[in-house]
């Protein structure tokens, strides 16, 4: 059975690196846990690090966090759906919002539950996902300022999530100016300017972050140590907190090209030869016990540089081991480094065992 393993020590070191980084700059931050897909084994590892604020886009995952530790501040990081209002107020201490109507519903539900629900007003800044348009922000803020049982915790923005717009210094300065505008207009203080995600860490390392941006939401950098500007690993961090292991279930010398009349495969693709000169050639192929139900081949990379991924069907992955220096046999495990989306597929699969290393 294929399994994914989380390496505890590497996760601890990545967390310590980030926590030191943020504390030195007086930045509050929370961990985005949606990658873990609510897996309790891994959520416990996260909590054991000392995390006091967890963000997720699934209310069922936040409910699990509250069951494990009710004192952790939970943050729902997308605009709430109308039919989820009761659960949002029950399990999320904070939610991201962009609609006056939705915030009014949150206010009504918070009164029923005798709670104060905190909100972050998300502002559209070019990525064209969720967010109030800047020219409407003052009117929006005024409309919700005095709603009962609602605390406006701050303002924020999402960049790079849909259209790939990067969080440049200019973008974050603009977000800081919105804070100044609202504070001057309403004579209030805004605690959070939540403009930082994993993609903004390089700006912070270059001291290009506006000081007003004082709250970060971090997922990918924690689990993969990735500099999302360059694609490299941030110096001092690990990029292999997670690894995938799949078992060899067949090894056979086979032709490089399929034989017979070609049609569409069971997963909707058709074979196209890479090089007609290779027709008639053979290679040593191995089949692994994992397939498209659990992962996408483009998001994994064999640690053995001599292995080439050929293709996958729903339940099996075919690899070429001809150029590997290791002599594989049936039952051996092949290890893979995983990209963010690869881990998301694997962690969302009930068929992949989750382990701690």
Outline the secondary-structure elements.
Elements: E1 3-6, H1 8-24, E2 28-32, H2 40-48, E3 53-56, H3 59-68, E4 73-76, H4 85-91, E5 94-97, H5 100-112, E6 117-122, H6 137-144, E7 150-156, H7 169-186, E8 192-197, H8 201-205, E9 215-218, H9 220-224, E10 242-255, E11 282-288, E12 300-302, E13 308-312, E14 317-320, E15 333-338, H10 340-347, E16 353-356
Parallel strand pairs: 1-16, 2-3, 2-9, 3-4, 4-5, 5-6, 6-7, 7-8, 8-9
Antiparallel strand pairs: 1-10, 10-11, 10-15, 11-14, 12-15, 13-14
Protein name: Alanine/ornithine racemase family PLP-dependent enzyme
GO cellular component, one term: cytosol
Cofactor: pyridoxal 5'-phosphate
Gist of the model:
The chain has 357 residues and is of the alpha/beta class. Helices cover 28% and strands 24% of the residues. One of its GO terms (cellular component) is cytosol.
Report on the structure:
This protein has 357 residues and is α/β, with parallel strands linked by helices. The protein has two domains: 217 residues, TIM Barrel, CATH 3.20.20.10; 115 residues, Elongation Factor Tu (Ef-tu), domain 3 (Beta Barrel). The protein is built from ten helices and 16 strands. The strands form two sheets. Strands 1, 10, 11, 12, 13, 14, 15 and 16 form an eight-stranded mixed β-sheet that branches. The protein has an eight-stranded parallel β-barrel with strand order 2-3-4-5-6-7-8-9, surrounded by five helices. The longest helix has 18 residues. Its cofactor is pyridoxal 5'-phosphate. It holds the Pfam family Ala_racemase_N. This is Alanine/ornithine racemase family PLP-dependent enzyme.
